[in-house]
Structures
1.
Amino acid sequence: MQINNVNLVSVKYPAENIFRIEIDRPAGFNFKPGQFARIGISPNNEGSNEIWRAQTIVSRAEEDKTLVFYIVYLEGNPFSDALKKIKSGDKIHLDDLPYGHFTLDRFGPGGDLWLFSTGTGVAPYLCMLQQEKIWENFSTITLICSFRDQTQFVYRDTLPLEFEKLADFQNANYQKFSFIPIYTREKVVSDCIVRGVKTTNTFSRGYFEKLITNGELNYILENSISDINSKVMLSGNPNMIKTTRDFLKTLGLRSSRRNEPGNIAVENYW
Ligand SMILES: Cc1cc2nc3c(=O)[nH]c(=O)nc-3n(C[C@H](O)[C@H](O)[C@H](O)COP(=O)(O)OP(=O)(O)OC[C@H]3O[C@@H](n4cnc5c(N)ncnc54)[C@H](O)[C@@H]3O)c2cc1C
């Protein structure tokens, strides 16, 4: 394994428990949307006992000259505590290869794409939705993100939410796109998009596996997940992933495996 010593371009704190870090992208570091990098940070700035963790790449795979990550801060845990000490201009370590199979080539072409995440698990989708191919390849794209509360939704600028900021390929396919943010610990009005049109909804508090099973999401989206034409990605909290995947299997959906495309792909963050 080759390790790159990379420059930390910036460190920002969009929420009290979320870091946004941007690092220089080493020449030849190519990745597919949905893949992650392994980042190493020394807890004492002396280069010893580095803490390594997987972090999903948010930048545009083709164009960007830097790599951006949104990283949770969990006080008292090794990577989080090391992360708290770094500042722009520091050097951190990056494995020279990207990793992971949570990518769109897990699925055959076409159909309805459903993207579910909890918390920072939205990161792979931030990357995928900046890619032209996803907008062309699927009949509909529905992004359903759950956050603890509104302070955790710090991705507005990276998601295709504002008409005037859309790329041409997003604009041309916007009627395919739906976006549903769900806040699990507060009952608030959610600013949603349903097939390209802005709308608001108030969801019963709770996790989205419940909103699927009780029909609330189907009603709002006028669309439902089926084993015929749905491709479902689940990213983030393993408990959410297990409950949702178990439910999807009762609908006849199958996990996508290497060389055997199915309808479900998952990325467990821990
Ligand atoms: C493939 C993959 C991609 C990942 N991408 C990201 C990413 O883009 N952003 C990110 O913040 N994390 C991501 N993670 C998690 C990340 O690797 C670390 O676990 C995280 O940065 C916390 O590190 P830590 O040492 O502070 O805590 P750890 O010792 O790693 O974890 C301690 C506990 O914290 C909780 N936890 C871990 N990660 C999260 C999280 N993201 N949100 C809420 N609770 C968590 C779990 O309960 C875990 O048992 C990813 C993990 C995997 C496997």
2.
Amino acid sequence: MPDDIARPPDPAEPRPRGGHCVVLGASIAGLFAARVLSDAFDRVTVVDRDALPETDENRRGVPQGRHAHAILPAGTRGLQQLFPGLLEEFEADGVPVVREPVEMHFAPGGHLLCQEGRYADPTPTYQPTRPRLEGQVRRRVGALPGVEIIDRCEAAGLTGTPDRTRVTGVRLVRRGDGAERELAADLVVDATGRGGRTTRWLSDLGYEPPREDRIAVDIKYVSRNLRLAPGALGRRKVVIVGAAPGRPTGATLLQHGADHWMLTLIGYGGHHPPTDPGEFLEFAKPVMPSDVFEALCAAEPLDDPVAHRYPASVRRRYERLERFPEGLLVFGDAICSFNPVYGQGMSVAALQADALRECLGKGRDRLSYRFFRAAARRIEVAWQMAVGSDLSLPEVTGPRPLPVRLTNAFFDRVMTAAERDPVVAQEFVKVGSLLSSPLILLHPRTVGRVLLGNLLHPARRD
Ligand SMILES: Cc1cc2nc3c(=O)[nH]c(=O)nc-3n(C[C@H](O)[C@H](O)[C@H](O)COP(=O)(O)OP(=O)(O)OC[C@H]3O[C@@H](n4cnc5c(N)ncnc54)[C@H](O)[C@@H]3O)c2cc1C
């Protein structure tokens, strides 16, 4: 009989420790999952098809590593819990840390948020490069007892019991010589990214794949590393200018070291940034504040611009499946891949790690049933915010029912008030950082400030 994941977990089930878990994919989500699983399983094997570098450099399987990667405060909290001491190490190594509003120029939806005051929530933002973050996390996970990381091995499919109710392991193909082998596991976790191999593997095992929600955004990223003169941007360590209705382009400038910055230009369909080095900066001119643009013109390029296309946000509704085999989970972007301009992916992977820890704490009975639902709850807010923001741009096609239009109109008023009101700005940033539910913005005190702010000052576009 196939497993019916709609059956609720048995609370009386003991919480076993031990067994072998295989995690497919050694990027951020796979490593976060492995960290949590190492507390519940005797052995955790992490498999990646890439050659994993010894040093903190980019690799083929993570092309997004060449582009701006911000960790939201929700992700920072996740890193603190999963890898105590890691953030302190970053700071000691000179990784820039944003602690005050004055250090962040943040202009979402055409509104430059107020840079006055202090953050009430003390969670700072750390700015390592993406390869550095992944490299440090990988070394820590690899050093955990019972964890082995195998690279240059491609997961080609799953093995299962004859009745296909349980996954029993994974088929691996070694890169280079093509040697095949099977790796037995009590639990297989697919963290192979937005490609989402499990959907095909489920069909091979005789299961329905999950329904997919998609929002076509047709985003292009073009990025390059720059050396900026010390102090060129004053106290600012990050500049983020989001797209706005009427201007479907944006830019992020992230400080990674004393004089090392990464500039990422972003454009929705029909407004893609150029990779030609000469035209690259021109694209930034109408987007960036004029003093930042001047600093960019005076900067020394450290490499050539590189591009990345991102066609659509994709959410796979595993939590809605009625049948799913035992011994299998899906994790990270393989469940939900967000439009990257909102910087949510790694933080949501940390929230999923939290969901996994919570579920494993209650035993392994009906693990997929419980995990997919717990993960979906954490994904929901981030997904709604990303989709809602995208739908505020006429360039993005998709249904805009009344609740979406009302929510977007309300968010626009919140951002208008947040241009001058540090309290509203902080509430908005907390929501966007996935630290608080958007419902906090409906608190009468906040609504009052939003109304007053909009009455006193007309909207300003930056
Ligand atoms: C352009 C861009 C910018 C982004 N910016 C941000 C940002 O600012 N902030 C943020 O939080 N997130 C950002 N993200 C999202 C973030 O990169 C991901 O959410 C994060 O990497 C977690 O993804 P993942 O580990 O699930 O998958 P991925 O990072 O895609 O990794 C998948 C891994 O699986 C391996 N793999 C694939 N297939 C196989 C196979 N068959 N066998 C074995 N191994 C396999 C790959 O080699 C890779 O290591 C961005 C994404 C993009 C595309």
